Amino acid sequence: MRRPSPRQGILAALALAVLAVAWLLPEVRGDAERYERARARITALEVAHGRLRELTIGLRHGIGANYDEGNAWLARILAEQTALAAEIDHLPALHAPWQAYREAEASLEQHWEDFKLGNAVVRNSLRYFQSDALAFMRALPATAEGNRLRQQLATVSQQLLMRALGEVGGAVGDGGLTWVMPPPSAAGLSTAARDELTRLARHAELIARSSPALERDLAAILHGDGRARLAALAAANHRLLLAEQQRVERYRVGLLLAIGVLSLALAWLAVRYVDSLRQRERDLRLAGTVFDSSHQGIVVTDRDGNIVRVNQAYCAMTGYAESELLGRNPRILRSGQQDAGFYRALWQRLLVEGRWQGEMHNRRRNGAAFVQWINIDAVDTDAGERLYVGIASDVSELVESRERLSSLAYFDTLTGLPNRFLFHDRLRHGLARARRERGSLALLFLDLDNFKNVNDTLGHAAGDELLVEIARRLRACVREADTVARLGGDEFALLLPDPGGPENTAAVAGEITRALAAPCRVHGYEIVCGASVGITFYPADGVSAEQLLRNADVAMYRAKDRGRGTFQFFTEDMAAAVAETLRIENGLRNALSAGELELHYQPQFAQDGRVTGLEALLRWNSAELGPVAPARFIPVAEKSGLITDLGCFALREACRQCAEWRARLDPALRVAVNLSAAQFRHDGLAERIAEILAAHALPGDALELEITESVVMEDVARGQDVLRRLKRMGCRIAIDDFGTGYSSLAYLRRFPVDVLKIDKTFVDGLGIESDDTAVVEAVIGLARSLRMGVVAEGVETRAQLLRLHTLAGGQGFAAQGYLLARPQTPAEFAAGYAALAASYRALAGADGAADAAGGAVVPGDNGTPGGSIGGGGGMGAGSGSTGGASGRG
Ligand code: C2E
Ligand code: CA
Ligand code: CA
């Protein structure tokens, strides 16, 4: 329950006061006034009665003769009586004395009228009587009789007058008027005198008779009870008036007290009210200040969602002016990023719980999107109105950096594609779903064919641009639900949930290879990158993420083997290859300790037939798998990391052997050892080599290190550093398989390279393919201008050899190949060493130059296939690649 406000208190107090006054006021006024008025009227009556009496007395005694004044006073008395009666009607306590007075004065008017009449008669008669009597007396003779009569007449006149004046006594009438008419003494009078005397006697008698009635009326007017009763009424009225006045006085004091108390209460309430008003005003001002200066946007809407107030911060956030927002619905900010369901849920929550908070994606006035965090509360005002108050802050930057962070963790920054983590995550989810729904899933593993070269030749910026373009094309090839991820470097992977059969997936893969085969324009160059794609299916090719990825990788390598720019499904035989790889890897782990590894050596010949060096080639005769070709086990060793140990073994063994042969056969002999990428990357390579050379007291130039271009180019700075250190030790550096990579002349010049080994593929085409011939010629020319040596590997026919001689002209080169000598055991080499130079010279003799162009058949000296000089017996079988020569005999 809410406490009543001071204002309500004041209103209640005022209402109470009005009620009290309305109730008390009649009591306070009481009948006092009426008594007061009654008193005035009674006094007026007393005065009027008094005046009437005075006048009556005057009239009676002949002092006055004006009856009109008496009439007026009587009228006044009557009027006052009527007025007083009206007052007394309301004053019951006065009814009795009033009644007594009225009774006493009931016949006043009658008495007055009678008095007037009687008095007039008596007084007139008396006057006439006296003048008549006087005249008569004068006429009386001066006799005794006359004198006596005169005396008698004077006495009667005297008595009558006395009586008229209200004096009692006299001889006239019963009142003592003693005159008998006519008196005997009048006998002597004339008849006229006697008649006159009789008339006088009768006149006197009339006067004497009238006087008593007049006296009664007079007595009634002058001495009636009326006077006393009016006095009694006045006394009663006075007494009651006093009592009433005392009572009213008491009420008045009570009322004053009550008013005093009420006034105090009112004053107290008013003070409180003013206080509360001030507090309210302070609160409002404070709230207003908070509202206006808050850095958070504040928006207030009515129950219909129309904005009724906003603060500056909100305007700044949304870009709208206050006037543009007032009366509008905040939905003008909608960005459309949230669906109707979002707003429905929001209102539902607001209506049920009275509050909602969360992130809202909105649009500013200028259309820019922003994210606000908003707290909305339903608020009911004093006036019973429902408002919604929203406090919002702009969290766009926060959200952006949050998203950037999460995308950093899960997306590739360059291409914006999901990275390895996210891909694995999606793959796991996809698998779980496929398992649940008994569905399938396709995984495409993609490796760019020429990316490395682009990076090496055009630089990283170009490489980045190319990757971005490729990512774009890949995305364009798949559906929305599919995932395209960059796993790292130039490896991409695609995840196709619900692939719908191998044909569909093949279509997608075909589209991808076609899309990537189209040239890209990067840094002004037209580049064709191309990609090889390996495909696996869940559940046919694997049930775990690892299995699927590994098998897709295998399939991708198969695609690369099959000529690049294609795609391959992972099939059963691939699974078998995978199994074999695993067997090889396991076998290799024990190969070294089991002594299953050895080195064979393939001689390299100078133009004059001298053996200048030998390439050391690893041979593995596995107890379990039989002889395994390096082409099979070297890649496995590289992937598994076993190559470091193998390479170390090769270096040690080759150097040991070289030292031995230098001592026994030729002190200038040099051994060439292949270095794999892993070895090259390994820290401490130079130190190890130095240590090995020292262990066999070999000079640096006894060792040639064969490295492929791509290995050196992998990290140019590092490559330069390592090669320079090896160079300082005197070692020779040969670039193996030269011509197959993107031979970057600019870089090549910056490496201390001694020898370029022309790849077998070019040698194969010598004299047959003009392109190949041109390449070989160019490489020889290049080597000449860079002052490098050249080794042609894989020389299998005499024609090739002769052609090499022709191309080289005066420039020196070395040749290596089955034609000249197969890789062989140290023992075989030592045994055949003496004859090698002569055989070479025989092969390269001038007689062979004629059929150089044909080159298909090389008549071997001894008729053995390939006409190999040193390739005796089955010792070449260890290489596992005998087929290379078999058809050429
Ligand atoms: P590579 O360095 O190009 O070695 C030359 C390969 O060509 C050798 O094969 C050799 O037997 C073969 N070859 C030589 N002349 C002819 C010819 O006239 N016709 C044909 N068809 N082949 C010829 P191999 O011994 O099977 O070695 C294959 C690859 O294994 C090597 O290619 C090399 O990359 C790698 N490898 C061999 N031994 C080692 C080693 O000790 N360390 C490293 N890292 N790699 C090695
Ligand atoms: Ca080699
Ligand atoms: Ca080679």
Helicity range of the residues? Answer: 55-70%
Round the mean pLDDT to the nearest integer and report it.
Answer: 85
Unreliable spans are 169-176, 847-889
Number of strands: 21
Q: What is the radius of gyration?
A: 77 Å
> Counting H and I runs of at least 4 residues, what is the number of helices?
30
List ligands, each type once: ligand C2E, calcium ion
N- to C-terminal distance: 115 Å
**Main sheet strand line-up:** 13-14-16-17-18-19-20-21
Q: Report the portion of residues in β strands.
A: 5-15%
Class derived from helix and strand content: alpha/beta
Main pleated sheet: 8 strands, mixed, barrel
Task: Kindly describe this structure.
- It is built from 30 helices and 21 strands.
- Strands 13-14-16-17-18-19-20-21 form an eight-stranded mixed beta barrel, surrounded by five helices. A five-stranded antiparallel beta sheet has the order 2-1-5-4-3, with helices on both faces. Strands 7-8-6-11-12 form a five-stranded mixed beta sheet, with helices on both faces.
- The two termini are about 115 Å apart.
- It is rod-shaped, with a radius of gyration of 77 Å.
- The model is unreliable at about 170-175 and about 845-889 (pLDDT under 50).
- Helix 17 crosses helix 18.
- It is α/β, with parallel strands linked by helices.
- Strand 9 and strand 10 form a beta hairpin.
